[in-house]
Amino acid sequence: MGVASESAFPFASTKLATSPRFCSSISRRIFSDVVGDVTISVDGQSFLLHKFPLVSRSGKIRKMVVESKDTDLSMLELFKVPGGAPAFELAAKFCYGTNFEITTSNVAHLRCIAEYLEMTEDYQEENLIARTETYLNEIVVQSLEKSIEVLCASEGLHPTVDELGILDRCVDAIAINASKEQLVSGLACLECDAGSGKLKMDGQDWWVEDLSVLRLDLYQRVVAAMRRTGVRSDSITTSIVHYAQTSLKGVERYQAWDSSTFVGGKQRVIIETLVGLLATEKITSVPLSFLFGMLRMAIEVDAGRGCRLELERRIGFQLEMASLDDLLIPSLQTNDSVFDVDTVHHILVTFLQRIEDEDSEELLQCGYESEGLKSPSHSSVLKVGRLMDGYLAEIAPDPYLKLQKFMAIIELLPDYARIIDDGLYRAIDIYLKAHPSMTESECKKLCKLIDCQKLSQEASNHAAQNDRLPVGLVVRVLYLEQLHLKSALSGNSVDRSLSQRMIGSSGAPSSAVSPRDNYACLRRENRELKLEISRMRVRLSELEKEQAFMKQGMRDGRSGERSRAFLASLSRGIGRIAMIAPATGKQSQASDGKRRRRHKHSVS
């Protein structure tokens, strides 16, 4: 605490001959050798004093004595005294000339009681009002730390302390001194990189932690003053984050089923106020982890809807930087899912709205529109797509998760948010496994959201053997695999894969795909086709060996079991292909013709 020396602010040039002595909390006497002639009652405490030293400095007491009809006045009662009995005791000491120090802890009390007792220069020079004003102007407002201490010590002095402008002066002093500190520290820590000529700022704001001791309403005023005086936005944000961490320790967890345990009223006010302060800061200046933490606490203490919407909006504007753990927000509603899916849905809506706005702005700047053109935020959409696939996989095992909420998250993301649908397929498969009671129609409705053409070879192989999937989806997967094999054998893999990519499973063109998506898809499919061609070559080599073995056996007049087994397996394979992709009319006629010809040959 900053303390003024007695030599700087003495209240008597010489000490009195007799030291003051206080008898009890009920009856207090200043001098032990002189009987007091007036008793002053302050908040239930009585002070046995003398009229002369009081009326010589206090205009209020002088008026009360003069206006009294009792010529032998011995009792005075003071009401609504700012600072109460302790402040009046200090003022009485000043009237008697007793030396004591003005400090940051008592200057606000002394200034308020001096105003109440009308201790102005009209009654005596260098009265208490003048002394306290000198201390405030020359000591307090010159120091950021002392201004904070005076604000902390002003508790219980309302409304007098506000009417006298003490709080405003301290608030403005904090803002001005913080701005000066930043300027001085910035110049001191300014470094110049001789090679690049870039400027580097290394200064840190030591006062950020000091502000966390302020009462919430005073802190609000300090932040507003700092914005007016030009304190850096990142410093204000850091201060708000530190204030929240300090003041929200031990937030009580809200239990919806037991309202008696809810004691988060104070924390709710703090959260709503701090979120309101953040509303004017830059979106990217607020750490994402802090926003998620505030959102969790806002949900726990049942903060206002506006508060939560602001947090969801800020998170949505930088969702691509979030982690999976950030999104796993516990739900506090009874008979609901384990995680708060609605909140994540709101955040995702905000993110997509931001992407839409950015794309519209980019198109206006370019002066043309192109459906297939990659947007500047496309990489952010891809990141969020992967993030949401992971989130869906995490919430899918929850048996209480409703299908509508699960599907709502999937349907929100556009088609170009996923280059491959492996993550989505995995999440849906987990959901089907965790919800065996789903009806067939619900299962089909959910599985329609999977684009079979975006499944990797590994995912397609898994889907083809997955009993939980609808038969229609399995057939589509097998059919696409057959097309891939035909493309690999025909040598038109690139053209066919591109055309198949642009056509959905229903036969209608899919949504617009960006050139980068097409390029990535082509590269992926080329790798898959090369792998498939290698497998076909191996299989072809095996068939040639089998054919040579079979010919040799026929020459020897002994077609053994190995040949019969091979033919049987070959016929089964042809039968399966026929089931998956039945031939067209001409092809089936040609096959019938060939079979008839082979039959005639054998008969003859």
TrEMBL record:
It comes from the Eukaryota. Residues 205-484 form the NPH3 domain. The keyword Heme does not apply. Residues 519-546 form a coiled coil. Residues 36-104 form the BTB domain. Residues 580-604 are annotated as: Disordered. GO terms for biological process: protein ubiquitination. The gene is LOC103705965. This is BTB/POZ domain-containing protein At3g08570-like. It comes from Phoenix dactylifera. Keywords: Coiled coil, Ubl conjugation pathway. Residues 594-604 have a biased composition (Basic residues). Belongs to the NPH3 family. Pathway: Protein modification; protein ubiquitination.
